């Protein structure tokens, strides 16, 4: 078969954005190699066959952005519902409204506070430790929000997320812990927010629906690399350490175990996401997917609901890498991989795995559009070098 003009490794949002732009605007023939059995990367979702509820297979995905260009671009492939994300947190038998806000403070301290009273209370409680003196995550959190709120809403959850006592975690994992002195409890504060009306997979499939784009599923790049390396430009969105056969050592990641079940009730928890802040509850959150699409209520099987318990842990070889751990050791390795990546001829590294960065979906799209503008388009239209 003739060589394509461009090979993309990974059919996630980063790879799909590059593919769509190069095929549609430059008329290039693009081949996407994807090792999973589906496209879409971690944003992939499926309708549960029994209940017809859309389930996000790699953890809950909520779209939000303040980037006009990304919003306009995403809307070429899907419309979005008016879903607004809210999160609640359970602690010692009570349910609180997150992120920390006036409703939570009033409920937690058992009486009403005006915004000024709440501000004064938190300022007093957090004066125990000065932020610049904090030598670990626990001290940093106490210096920002005080001990009572830290112990209820940060300590247990963080310990479960990291399987590590917060006193052993680095202070710079958190830079700020926002407390809202209002009753506003929308989880995101971006200009645009919503869920793809027909679901994630319809959106992501439409991005690849172009006569110049071929998606080859269940194909691992490393099995066919010799056919393409050095012969055509490649955009690689897999793990950067894996590309270089872990020559500088493995980068560390956290993963999440997602335990899915169908329960015999119309409504399990009354909302999409409930965090579990008690340390002795082993999971960090429960997701109930039907609440992401209240407008689909009539299409869901009555009397049933799909829920997922999430358990967080360090990723071992073979686990899905989800969140970069980003220790000092990881950062040192990453610098070496970046040097190697820069020197790799005709290969560009992108996306969350290729750059070892947690990227929200809008950031993955935004950075792919920048790579297209700054590297691929100049290369294919003006012959600029690909570095
Ligand atoms: P992504 O990981 O999606 O795609 C990379 C693809 O490359 C994968 O499909 C992989 O199989 C493939 N690949 C890797 N190596 C390969 C090889 N050797 N050969 C062939 N294929 C290979 N964002 C947001 O905006 N709102 C949210 O609520 C969430 N929620 C969320 C929850 C969880 C648990 C996670 C981990 C992430 C989120 N995100 C999110 C982030 C979102 O998932 C992220 O922005 C996108 O996945 C980024 O897309 P990429 O294309 O960079 O990577």
Automatic annotation (TrEMBL):
Keywords: FAD, Flavoprotein, Isomerase. Residues 152-358 form the UDP-galactopyranose mutase C-terminal domain. InterPro entries: UDP-GALP_mutase, UDP-GalPyranose_mutase_C. SUPFAM superfamilies: FAD-linked reductases, C-terminal domain, Nucleotide-binding domain. Its cofactor is FAD. Transmembrane segments: none annotated. This is UDP-galactopyranose mutase. The keyword Flavoprotein applies. Belongs to the UDP-galactopyranose/dTDP-fucopyranose mutase family. Its EC number is 5.4.99.9. It comes from Nocardioides potassii. It comes from the Bacteria. GO terms for molecular function: UDP-galactopyranose mutase activity.
């Amino acid at each position: 078969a003739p060589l394509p003009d461009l090979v993309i490794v990974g059919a996630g949002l980063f790879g799909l954005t590059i593919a769509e732009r190069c095929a549609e605007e430059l008329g290039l023939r693009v081949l996407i190699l994807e090792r999973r059995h589906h496209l879409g990367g971690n944003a992939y979702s499926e309708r549960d066959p029994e209940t017809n509820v859309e389930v996000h297979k790699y953890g809950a995905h909520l779209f939000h952005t303040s980037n006009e260009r990304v919003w306009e671009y995403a809307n070429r492939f899907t419309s979005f519902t008016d879903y607004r994300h809210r999160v609640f947190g359970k602690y010692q038998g009570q349910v609180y409204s997150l992120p920390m806000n006036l409703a939570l403070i009033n409920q937690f301290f058992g009486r009403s506070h005006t915004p000024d009273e709440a501000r004064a209370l938190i300022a007093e409680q957090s004066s125990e430790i000065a932020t610049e003196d904090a030598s670990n995550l626990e001290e940093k959190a106490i210096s920002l929000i005080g001990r009572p709120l830290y112990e209820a809403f940060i300590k247990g959850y963080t310990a479960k997320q990291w399987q590590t006592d917060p006193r052993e975690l680095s202070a710079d994992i958190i830079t700020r812990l926002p407390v809202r002195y209002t009753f506003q409890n929308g989880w995101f504060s971006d200009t645009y927010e919503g869920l793809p009306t027909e679901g994630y997979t319809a959106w992501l499939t439409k991005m690849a629906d172009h006569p110049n784009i071929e998606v080859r599923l269940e194909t691992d790049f490393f099995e066919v690399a010799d056919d393409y390396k050095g012969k055509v430009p490649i955009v690689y969105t897999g793990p950067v350490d894996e590309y270089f056969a872990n020559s500088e050592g493995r980068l560390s990641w956290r993963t999440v175990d997602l335990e899915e079940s169908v329960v015999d009730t119309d409504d399990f928890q009354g909302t999409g996401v409930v965090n579990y802040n008690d340390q002795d509850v082993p999971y960090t959150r429960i997701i109930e997917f039907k609440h992401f699409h209240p407008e689909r209520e009539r299409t869901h099987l009555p009397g049933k609901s799909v829920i997922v318990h999430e358990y967080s842990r360090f990723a071992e070889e073979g686990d899905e890498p989800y969140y970069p751990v980003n220790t000092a050791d990881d950062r040192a390795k990453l610098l070496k991989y970046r040097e190697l990546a820069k020197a790799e001829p005709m290969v560009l590294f992108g996306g969350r795995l290729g750059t070892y960065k947690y990227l929200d979906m809008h950031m993955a799209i935004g950075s792919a559009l920048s790579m297209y503008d700054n590297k691929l388009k100049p290369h294919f239209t003006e012959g600029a070098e690909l570095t």
